[in-house]
Design goal:
Distance between the termini: 76 Å
Number of domains: 3
Oligomer: single chain
Shape: flat
Radius of gyration: 37 Å
Length: 745
């Protein structure tokens, strides 16, 4: 029968050995996988970034060099290709033809691009415009050793043999300055055939996917990790692959050194565990015996018993915990009031933690708002189709000194050409879910729509309806991945600037309103109920001919779900009549500020509100500005440029009171002459005429700030920043005022 001491030693040793071995193995595998995956991921990122250095002209140069090298190539019979072993290369050009191709400017340009990619991984940044030499600075070598471009050859349809077009190391050069041209210092020249059958990841790159070698590989020149990035032409077809090789000797040595250290740790831990088991078995018995006697006394209701804490180890802490427990039991009857006070303090601490969590949540809200605001773009610059929009989110919050809004509505406009004809694009969407989920959906939706617009700008487009269908299908595919948890209702359309022909799709969004000659009606007879991301989503492109002066109003369902009041049992009365919005648009004369005022006069919105206004061949002047006042406005603008503010004010006096420019430029002139009170009066009149416009709000914020009304200035500037997030002037003034407000607090 083994003694207690022996059992303790054996148990601790075996447990230590098992834990050490298991944890060391897991740690080793984690380190190995992490080092490889992170290195491979960064290498692919370098490759993806590097390929963007290749312009369209560079890509055409690659194809041209490929064609020329094919014409000048020597015969390549099958037996010659079969003689090239994996990892070996063979030159297929004569020296004269090779030198002829290497002397071409487009070849030299590609060599410089490969060297730029290599040198981007050095600590020292080369001066712009300097030609990069092949020789490596031994004090600051690049992390990338090789960068090159390969193309397929017709004689190898399975791409087992590829051809070098360019390599950053295209000259024989003693890079390490040891006086000897070693194997890895030989030139890799155009026309060299290379057997890549041992590198299947390179072949995957021809399928359009950036890849990396699945693990480190060793050859006669060291340990390597390679990445392969597809090079595509203007049609999106992969015609070449760029390879970059990273010397992974240090990472490989680190992993092996870690393995040796872990083996030593296991052996040492077993020895130390056995020694500790011997020591622990000798000192455990006494504290355990004392604890047993003390527990028996407590069982007999002797609460005066205490253990002596002779050490600070686990037994010492156990003794302290025992003493604390017994003392607490004793104090329940003697010090109940003290217990209540202590518990109150604990509740206050919990409340502080809850407040900290609330601040953390608000910071998440604020970050989401900052990410989403740049996506709300009124990028339309058409002279015949004018667009504007208004967004008010239901969720409002305060983070530190900033006040912001959060929601799921999105408005985007822009311009596209189809067959050389200008079109105006508009998008009004509403992502499902509460404030944070809706904002997440809006963020995804906004990023996708803006990305599609940017992508479309760089391509020749011919079919407007087909492009809209493809755009909505792309949005639908993305939101389908959320499996019904997130979907989007939207209206998306294109207006032919010259003819006014409107093509649009309404996907589960409230019906758009046409305002023509003072009358309103819905543009659609019915709305297709399925939203983007829902099962069964179908597309239906509709068309309508806009006439001169027509105004189209699109909006989210927040325009309809107005809280009209409460019943006696406090049950909310929500508007259920979508036709009410027709009357709202008519009363608001299809102006955004008018529509907003009418809506708020009916009741309180219960959801986010986004309203988009699209006007076809409407006067370019704001409300109240007449065509006859153009020359007068031009003269006023020239006087303001010359700082002739009093003369400008005298001209403005002769304008009609309903003219926007009269009040806007009067406010500007009064602010420049220091009459802040008159400036505020004029700018408020301009604001009443046209509603919330970023230019008016910015000038109003300036005047408020100069008048010392800092908080009023911050309020209007926040609205201006929301309407026009890309305006650096608004952002700079707002940040300055908020910082000054924070310092005063």
């Amino acid at each position: 029968m083994l003694s207690y001491q022996t059992k303790m030693i054996v148990s601790i040793s075996l447990l230590a050995a098992g834990i050490s071995a298991t944890s060391s193995y897991i740690f080793y595998q984690t380190i190995q996988n992490h080092v490889w995956t992170q290195t491979a991921a960064r290498l692919k990122d370098i490759g993806r970034t590097g390929q963007f250095l290749l312009t369209v002209k560079d890509r055409e140069s690659i194809q041209n060099l490929d064609n020329l090298s094919e014409k000048l190539s020597e015969a390549r019979p099958p037996e010659l290709l079969q003689s090239i072993r994996p990892g070996e290369n063979l030159q297929s050009l004569s020296d004269a033809n090779r030198l002829k191709l290497e002397s071409m400017p487009e070849y030299q340009r590609l060599v410089q691009v490969m060297r730029q990619i290599k040198n981007s991984t050095r600590h020292q940044i080369p001066e712009p415009g300097t030609e990069i030499a092949q020789k490596i600075d031994p004090g600051d070598p690049p992390l990338l050793r090789y960068a090159y471009i390969l193309v397929p050859v017709p004689e190898s349809p399975n791409r087992r043999i590829l051809k070098f077009i360019v390599d950053g190391d295209d000259q024989r050069l003693d890079t390490n300055s040891d006086g000897i041209i070693e194997a890895d210092e030989e030139a890799t020249q155009i026309g060299m055939l290379y057997n890549v059958s041992a590198q299947p990841q390179m072949l995957k790159a021809f399928e359009g996917e950036a890849t990396a070698s699945t693990e480190y590989y060793r050859d006669e020149w060291g340990v390597w990790l390679s990445a392969y990035v597809p090079i595509k032409d203007v049609n999106g077809q992969t015609f070449a692959v760029m390879g970059i090789d990273l010397s992974a000797e240090s990472e490989f040595s680190l992993v092996n050194r870690t393995r040796r250290i872990l083996v030593a740790v296991i052996l040492i831990s077993v020895f130390v565990a056995g020694l500790l088991g011997l020591i622990i078995s000798r000192i455990l018995s006494r504290p355990l015996l004392d604890l047993t006697h003390a527990v028996e006394k407590v069982q007999n209701r002797d609460f005066k018993v205490r253990l002596k804490t002779k050490s600070g180890d686990e037994f010492g802490r156990l003794a302290q915990a025992f003493n604390s427990m017994v003392g607490e039991i004793e104090s329940y009857t003697l010090h109940m009031e003290d217990i209540v006070i202590r518990k109150t303090g604990e509740l206050r601490s919990t409340l502080r933690r809850v407040k900290d969590l609330k601040n953390q949540q608000d910071s998440d809200y604020y970050l989401t708002t900052m990410l989403a605001n740049p996506l709300l773009k009124n990028g339309n610059t058409s002279e015949t189709v004018h667009t504007d929009f208004l967004i008010e989110y239901k969720k409002k919050f305060k983070y530190q000194k900033w006040e912001a809004e959060l929601g799921g509505d999105l408005c985007v406009t822009g311009n596209l050409d189809f067959d050389g004809e200008s079109h105006t694009f508009f998008f009004n969407g509403d992502a499902s879910g509460g404030a944070l989920q809706g904002a997440g959906g809006s963020l995804i939706m906004g990023a996708l729509v803006n990305s599609i617009l940017v992508r479309a700008t760089g391509h020749r487009l011919t079919d407007a309806a087909g492009w809209m269908v493809a755009t909505l299908q792309e949005l639908h595919r993305v939101f389908q991945e959320f499996q019904g948890e997130m979907h989007v209702g939207c209206v998306l359309g294109l207006i032919h600037d010259r003819s006014g022909n409107l093509q649009y799709v309404n996907a589960g969004h409230p019906r758009s309103v046409l305002y023509s000659n003072g009358l309103t009606r819905f543009l659609e007879n019915e709305v297709y109920a399925k939203r983007i991301g829902q099962e069964g989503f179908k597309l239906q492109v509709q068309r309508f001919q806009l006439e001169t002066g027509d105004v189209l109003i699109a909006g989210s369902d927040g325009r309809d779900t107005i809280l009209l009041g409460k019943q006696r049992n406090d049950e909310k009365i929500i508007n259920q009549d979508p036709d009410q919005f027709l009357d709202v648009v008519r009363k608001g004369r299809a102006e955004l500020h008018g529509i907003r005022e009418v809506l708020y006069s009916l009741g309180e919105p219960t959801d986010d509100i986004s309203i988009m206004r699209i006007a076809y061949r409407e006067t370019v002047h704001p409300a109240g500005a007449s065509a006859g006042s153009e020359s007068l406005v031009d003269e006023v603008e020239k006087l303001i440029e010359l700082s002739e503010y009093e003369t400008a004010l005298s001209l403005l006096e002769g304008m009609e009171d309903e003219n926007f420019f009269k009040h806007y430029y009067s406010g500007l002139c009064y602010s420049r002459t220091g009459n802040q009170a008159r400036a505020l009066e004029s700018l408020q009149e301009a604001r009443n005429l046209v509603g919330e416009r970023a230019s008016v709000l910015y000038l109003l914020g300036q005047v408020y700030a100069e008048a010392g009304r800092r908080f009023a200035a911050i309020e209007v500037l926040q609205k201006a920043a929301f309407l026009q997030p890309e305006d650096d002037r608004v952002k700079a003034l707002l940040d300055k005022l908020q910082n000054e407000s924070g310092e005063m607090n």
